Amino acid sequence: MTYLFIGMLIGGIIGFTVGGLAIAFKSAEKELARLDKEVKDAHKQNKSKG
């Protein structure tokens, strides 16, 4: 029973770690896309002014 508990604990930690990294990666991709769009918009505004 102790080994079952230890195995479940280790599996849970690994699962949360992998899941958290996957969510962080997805969030980073969305943020990079948003920032890229913002930079492109800023360049368009600068070209139209000058």
UniProtKB/TrEMBL annotation:
Keywords: Membrane, Transmembrane, Transmembrane helix
Residue spans crossing the bilayer: 6-25
Keyword Transmembrane helix: yes
Protein name: Uncharacterized protein
The organism of origin for this protein: Hominimerdicola aceti
